[in-house]
Specification:
Helix 1 packs antiparallel against helix 2, helix 1 packs antiparallel against helix 8 and helix 7 packs antiparallel against helix 9. The two termini are 41 Å apart. By secondary structure, the chain is mainly alpha-helical. It is built from eleven helices and two strands. A hairpin with a 3-residue loop joins strand 1 and strand 2.
Length: 306
């Protein structure tokens, strides 16, 4: 049996879509702010003889517009709180996904005593209770439940047909499906993510180094009065600072360490599930795997690797 994201409830898909949209908005706002700051510095460094109507200086006006754009974007970002909504909706989406997986493969606390009570009303009710408890905690810190405003989401089933079908399967099929479509999928994602962050970190490190070296070169020229007309060193310094700020905001280095550790933990759990984990140990093994891939665990690793 194959179990994919498409088999998860509508609530997950809606929350996941909001998280992706808010992530793009938050990242885009930061990107444009840094870019406009560099543009403002570059315009301010242009020669002052580019004038209009004897007193109006075009470079100064363009620089002022760039800085004004930074303020407008900052104000808009503070009002929309895209970063906060992104993180809350991502936590909600991953929590929903984790609970659905645990229910579908008999992970704790949704283990069934036998195949006869796999889809019993008690199991379904426990699933709804645990899901609502977790989502209620997120609403306390600002998450907006889409079921209160979107009728399509409010009327959709929380337990899909695919979830019930997988839950009714024998242990061997549930085990195979979970390892292939959840554990290995997540392990590969963390591996790809760490590789991407390594390449991106190298790119930004080289860019910062080159910009800093060029700024040093032009600063030395200005020191010996070999270049007075353009303040190139200041522009290059602003560009290097923007690159450094972007790299720090994206947390590339801590994420490399965190994702690598998560990948190692998943590899160990994969080996254990394939070799030593029995039917009786399965619920706790699934619960531990879901804990490892949770955003909270990754954030904890990032904070301690920063």
């Amino acid at each position: 049996m194959v179990f994919r994201n498409n088999d998860l409830p509508v609530l997950f898909h809606h929350t996941d879509a909001i998280a992706i949209a808010r992530q793009r908005e938050a990242v885009g706002a930061t990107r444009y702010q840094l870019l406009l700051l560099v543009v403002g510095a570059a315009m301010a460094a242009l020669p002052s003889n580019l004038t209009r109507a004897d007193s109006f200086q075009l470079p100064g006006a363009l620089s002022a517009l760039a800085y004004a754009g930074v303020l407008v974007i900052s104000y808009r970002a503070s009002r929309r709180r895209a970063k906060s909504h992104w993180q809350l909706n991502r936590s909600a989406a991953e929590f929903i996904k984790s609970v659905c997986w645990r229910y579908s493969v008999h992970g704790a606390p949704f283990e069934a005593a036998s195949a006869l009570d796999a889809n019993s009303p008690d199991s379904d009710e426990l699933f709804r209770v645990r899901l609502e408890e977790g989502l209620r905690e997120l609403t306390k810190v600002g998450w907006q439940d889409p079921r209160t405003t979107v009728p399509k989401v409010a009327g959709a089933e929380l337990i899909t047909t695919a979830m019930r079908q997988l839950r009714a399967k024998p242990f061997s099929i549930r085990k195979e499906t979970y390892i292939r479509d959840r554990l290995i999928e997540q392990r590969n994602w963390y591996h790809r993510s760490a590789d991407i962050y390594r390449r991106v970190t190298m790119l930004w490190s080289v860019s910062i180094g080159l910009l800093t070296l060029l700024a040093l070169f032009f600063a030395l020229l200005r020191t010996f009065s070999l270049a007075d007309s353009l303040h190139v060193a200041g522009v290059l310094s602003a560009a290097a600072a923007a690159c450094l700020a972007w790299s720090e905001i994206r947390r590339h280095q801590p994420l490399i360490a965190a994702h690598s550790l998560v990948e190692e933990d998943l590899a160990a759990m994969h080996t254990a599930m394939e070799t030593t984990v029995s039917d009786a140990q399965w619920p706790s093994a699934v619960y531990e795997t879901e804990r490892i891939v949770s955003p909270q665990h990754t954030d904890w690793l990032v904070r301690h690797r920063s």
